[in-house]
Amino acid sequence: xxxxxxxxxxxxxxxxxxxxxxxxxxxxxxxxxxxxxxxxxxxxxxxxxxxxxxxxxxxxxxxxxxxxxxxxxxxxxxxxxxxxxxxxxxxxxxxxxxxxxxxxxxxxxxxxxxxxxxxxxxxxxxxxxxxxxxxxxxxxxxxxxxxxxxxxxxxxxxxxxxxxxxxxxxxxxxxxxxxxxxxxxxxxxxxxxxxxxxxxxxxxxxxxxxxxxxxxxxxxxxxxxxxxxxxxxxxxxxxxxxxxxxxxxxxxxxxxxxxxxxxxxxxxxxxxxxxxxxxxxxxxxxxxxxxxxxxxxxxxxxxxxxxxxxxxxxxxxxxxxxxxxxxxxxxxxxxxxxxxxxxxxxxxxxxxxxxxxxxxxxxxxxxxxxxxxxxxxxxxxxxxxxxxxxxxxxxxxxxxxxxxxxxxxxxxxxxxxxxxxxxxxxxxxxxxxxxxxxxxxxxxxxxxxxxxxxxxxxxxxxxxxxxxxxxxxxxxxxxxxxxxxxxxxxxxxxxxxxxxxxxxxxxxxxxxxxxxxxxxxxxxxxxxxxxxxxxxxxxxxxxxxxxxxxxxxxxxxxxxxxxxxxxxxxxxxxxxxxxxxxxxxxxxxxxxxxxxxxxxxxxxxxxxxxxxxxxxxxxxxxxxxxxxxxxxxxx
Length: 635
Hints:
Elements: H1 14-36, H2 38-41, H3 46-75, H4 85-116, H5 128-141, H6 144-162, H7 173-192, H8 213-217, H9 220-225, H10 245-252, E1 266-272, H11 291-299, E2 301-303, E3 306-307, H12 313-322, H13 345-351, E4 355-360, H14 369-375, E5 380-382, H15 384-388, H16 406-417, E6 424-429, H17 453-472, E7 481-487, E8 509-512, E9 527-528, H18 532-540, E10 561-566, E11 569-574, E12 577-582, E13 585-591, E14 601-602, H19 606-629
Parallel strand pairs: 1-6, 1-7, 3-9, 4-5, 4-6
Antiparallel strand pairs: 2-8, 7-8, 10-11, 11-12, 12-13, 13-14
Helix pairs in contact: 1-3, 1-4, 1-6, 3-4, 3-7, 4-6, 10-19, 16-17
């Protein structure tokens, strides 16, 4: 490292040069973020893209000064005479040590954003065990992330070498104190980045007509640092769109319907990992990826306009099995509200004499699904650990990364269910249709790789489900069972046409009963994961003691809807229109796209827009305040 003994004319610019270097890197990362996710931004006006790059500098300043604050304090501390030699030698190492993790996070979102649709936050700590266990294969598979990180850190090291810190400070203590005060003031102003009463926040980025552009304006470090409430404290504000519950209740009241006759059939719900609707043949004529699922759909009820509540697995669990949507930045079961009272499908079924079980082929504890399954009332959990103690388990059944391949795990499930007393309810969460998209070696010839690695995993999944049904078809409980096929969230490979907000959440829902005709239902109406539990209970003729207000039975004639929060924007989807709003922008109204290939089209109807927005705001207020007050469910 260059000597710090004598003052250098460039020394006065040493600290600002380091900060400018990090700001420059963040702008380069923004260019890379745009390139990696280009399909997502193709529909955005170029003026918004340009504005996002300019606006993004403000967010970069906040992040850089937040991370660098302790270094700035050390650099401008009024040391008498010289900077202590040991501090001068270690300063740049501290500088690199502090910034490298955040540079890595910024680079990681070049790839990870594709799966989540938002910048990474501290919620990632909720799945730290999964990250630790999968770190090796993830770094190899996404090798460009460590490469960009190394190049970025190397650039910062070069800047540190080129512009060494000064060895001296002004002789006058007054001058040194003035410099410290000025540096402190600049740091505070940059962290706030606003002369208003409130500092610059992540939510301020979502002001564009194309919501994903807000993520382009952001950087990951600011989202990560400002999400500390995800780990400590509350995550939603007290909402006051309406003065009282009585004022907005008529807009969201699920009503009371006469219960159907009790019909306590077994229930098996298969949640397929990452199965977007566009992979399912009945959704896409000409596709041959899912012949078995297609047969189930044709012989049962196939809901064509069904949506996920979020873009990740931990949003699916509360929605599917408790009717709680994902209307905040983190999943409710990993939030500060995980201690609230949730009344899940499993709770109600157990009260009515059901044995309930949750099956997931991953390592026990992965994604917190064992914990989440208990929160929605499933009393037993079977994961990779239980599979390995099964007499039929083999070493080659393990995929080497996440857990057990679908075919052998479904065989394990079939064997376990055969010993259950009736009635029972089981959830089967599949695994193989997940990155890194590997299938058993014996099927690699039958299902050769294609440009989309997910496609052959879907073929394998479909074959595995066919084998499962074939193995249980002759079991005595089979003909007394309602089978449900759905997904936790979507997946779309890089290089395809980037979906709009509906396509980002579009998943299948298929209901099939081998011996009974299902009740009549409008399979074209909009529904979402929050409707699953009410639909199952309605079919079984069970009136729950507490009900979700965020879901409806799909067997009833009530209008359907879906709701989610994407890129900071709330959305309420109905069969004719879609209304959206965010904390920083007014409501927008879109015509619902009926027909394949159609996309959202904005509608200029102020009266209808405000009318639909009132309903959406009523749901948001009940959600936020219900979590805060632990009163989310209706009696």
